[in-house]
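Please, structure for the following, as tokens.
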Amino acid sequence: MSSPPPVTTPGSNVTPMPGIWPPPMGRPAAVPPSCFSQLYSLSQCYDDIVMMKQILSKVICDMAANDPDFQKCLAQAMAASGSNVPLVGVTDGSNAQPGQVGEFLSNRQTVNIPGVGGTSNQFLSTIVLPPGDWDIWAWTSVNNIIDALLFSLDPQPAGFSNSAAAWFDDPTNQGVGLTISGMTARGSVSVPTLLVFIYSTVCTTATTATFQVEARRRR
């Protein structure tokens, strides 16, 4: 008796799903990322950037209001940039920080005037102007009789409108306790500049005088 022919299963063109299918309860199937999830991430990133900007703004404003070193650095950076930005200064009557509008410099010294009868010349080193645009003026007060007196910038630095000079000359009406003020000058300098004044006198009796130079930053 012959055996029956073997049973063959026709081939299938269906590829089985990997893993377990359907997935067990409580374990959702993997969902490919959508454009909405990417937009959410982008939105979250933007919110983080906004928050960081707010934090940085608080830090910078605090430093600008309370940190003299930062204020000086900021003013110097603004001046170096040449940009048309608001000028930094004070409105409460206090002294402005170095580099700010309203910065004030002064130098006072005693001058010994010899009683030589002829002209005596002295050169007085005063303040050093930092780079910027300045108003400069000087005055002197003599403690005794003097026949003639002159002071002026010597040399007159480049960028100055005048030599801030003043003079007195009246030998018939000798000055007693004389005080004279020089011309106000504008000084615009790009490098630190020492102000040197020549102080010339004619005096028969030795005396002393006070000489003061002042400068205030315009920008």
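The mean pLDDT is 82. Residues 38 and 44 are 10 Å apart (CA to CA).
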